[in-house]
Amino acid sequence: TVVDNAALGTLLGYNYTGSFFATPLTSIPRTCASAVNTPCLTPGQFAPAGTLTGFGTIGRNSMYGPHFFDVDLSLMKDVKLWENVTFSFGAQAYNLFNHANFDQPVADISNPLFGSSIATVGPPTSLLGSFVGAGSSPRFVEIKGILRF
Questions:
Q1: Which residues of 73-92 are buried (b: 16+ CB within 10 A; e: fewer)?
Q2: Confidence (pLDDT) at 55
Q3: pLDDT of residue 77
């Protein structure tokens, strides 16, 4: 949601702690997926909150940021050694393509980085648990063998 935090000063004296939404002046894209190298939005596309329509007219969650992309792969092969003994071997890869996932673009039109993605995000949980942290998603490849009898 595009907001204008520069307009908050006018209502802070009245104990208003909500958000001022911006008002679009031109058509805006529904998705903002390529905001890493160049901003997908500019402040000139929006009127500052309070200038045209009070609290702003853009709808909440009216735009979508980049999508999350992650590929995990598992390959296994079973080999029967004897009647009741099976050996399984294979490999598992987590975050196979080592693809970076970027955070939502900065949504405050008073911020100089408005419309740019400035951070990366990880999956909600990590393969490593709390050792590296839940925000870490490095590429892992593991080889395993299982003997079942």
A1: eeeeeeeeeeeeeeeeeeeb
A2: 63
A3: 96
